[in-house]
Model the fold of this input.
Amino acid sequence: MTLTASVFPDSRGFFGIYGGMYVGETLVTPLLDLKQAAQETLHDDRFWEEYRRLLRDYVGRETPCYQAVRLAEHIGGADIWLKREDLNHTGAHKINNTIGQALLAGRMKKRRLIAETGAGQHGVATATVAALFGFECKVFMGAEDIRRQKPNVERMELLGAEVVSVVSGTSTLKDAMNEALRYWSGAVDDTFYVIGTAAGPDPYPWMVREFQKVIGEEARSQMLRQAGKLPDVVAACVGGGSNAIGIFHPFLNDNSVELVGTEAGGKGLDTGEHAASLTAGTPGVLHGAKSMLLQDEHGQVRDAYSISAGLDYPGVGPEHALLRESGRVRYETITDSEALEAFQALCRCEGIIPALESSHALAQAFKEAKKLGKNKTVLVCLSGRGDKDLEHVKKCL
Amino acid sequence: MSNGNHITERLIIQQKMSRLTETFIRVRNENRPAVIGYLTAGDPDEKRSEEIIGSVCRSGLDVLELGIPFSDPTADGPVIQRASQRAIKSGMTLEKGLAMVARLRQRLDLPIILFSYYNPIFVFGTKRFVREAESAGADGVLVVDLPHELSDEIMQYVPQSGKSQSGQFHFIRLIAPTTGADRRSDILRRADGFVYIVSRRGVTGSGSIDWDSLAASVNEMRSGTAVPLCVGFGIRSPEDAHKIAAFADGIIIGSAFEQRIEDDPNTAADSAAVFLREIRRVITS
Done:
């Protein structure tokens, strides 16, 4: 199957059987309006000029593509290249998307941005663009995550955002998203919901992909220029899947490039404590889309678990469900302890502290590099930096 | 209308019309709107839930919306969220909810609409759901997060009216204040059983209603359909019900019942029935 942006999703937002717009009636028309606005920007050069200008002057793009020589020697095998999304302003790839959505919110004459956040990276990226463009901002965050990610809460508040503590359900990312959807359904007229990953109802999965594709577009031409060839493997971590879809998409038609998505295997798939919705989930409908889901046999959504708050989500973007089904992308899992080892290896060998999310992609890249051997190349999406994780990692080591 | 005529009409209706349509004709003849009650199956547990539902149904409820709990009810406010959590904790599932419908159907004649988010139905199997819901004696389904455009995911399995076991299995569609004009016409054209008019933006059980604009938009919708127009979301008091009675064919009440179950599940069978009788009194007078 050939997959291109022009084919998926279809006009109703479906990627094969996945995706769609499964929401309450109150949100249907606002989503259709958003979809129309997003489609209009696709062919609007002025919109993309503004987007690229901000990514260059404000975010600091393009981000480097860096060959990690000492790391590759330490692992033994293929060359390892890192796409340095950790060097973006606010420390992760999330800002590529929030810049795009904030520009769209401005065009739609909204005055308030809302967002859900787990680890707080998307919350910080949304609070940042709210300050930049002069929007009011509310970020919904599970009470449990507020406790675990205090520095990011303080960052959001400094930037002028209100952090709303969510105590329903399990008080984590899934519940924060529930609460953001509830708030939005009461405030659709003046409020823009900035979803942080390539999931949720149509148009979010493809809209977020379009704003994150810059990762893969840059990386592809950087590899050709700097390494003189395309990589043999591209690895990225998958929670909701926005950095992965962003780096994968420009490589989809390069059949020689193997794409590997890495889910959080937590304490191991057999323990039930993981966040591997593609590997161990079943088809279901949550947060507006049909996709793969961690759930019980009665259709109740199960709690996800990961050492990394950003991967701690029981669903996944619908395009990943299709990419898995078509076989174009291989999805693997990495446990907490494998991710921690990779985290330390990058710190020690390269002087780079990666986010725990990105450490999952790194750990997978190590496996691929060993398997491929010399004269091959693995490209890793280093989606974020690990400053936010220091306290948590210290406890785990 | 004399009692004799009424009975004759009922007999004719029963051969041709669904239990739901018949109910709306009956209340129209009584010159009042229907009272539609939402209750979560299994709240606070299966046994007490069935007692509370039985008590409300015997106290003048016209249509029962039986809620199947879902772990992530994004269209619901805190009251129904907590009701759903209690029900899931007590072990309620779609399968058990269907068994409850079958038991209620043995002793109750009112229309029963299953009310659910899509995922429990999707995982159960949509085809199997339609078959088992019909054979349990349910009269239709309202799926909160399955919009109009996607209704065929379920309705493709409903036999043409007249051939199915209960006469007709309805798919209840919703119209919200945010619904655009084109979609509103489409929804009214395909309306089936009744239309659930969402009174305001936001989630169930909270917020205030703009009565004038609500009445105006309901009256506007009359020209687009002959199907009954029922209003729900945030109907908390007999005063609210009285206002809605002036322009709608039905009043949908949910959180107000669930609040009484939360306050004291052991007296909820009585307190919910007292509340319902009060609603019935203000809309009939």
The first strand of chain A starts at residue 14 and ends at 15. The radius of gyration of chain A is 19 Å. Chain A has 15 helices and 14 strands.
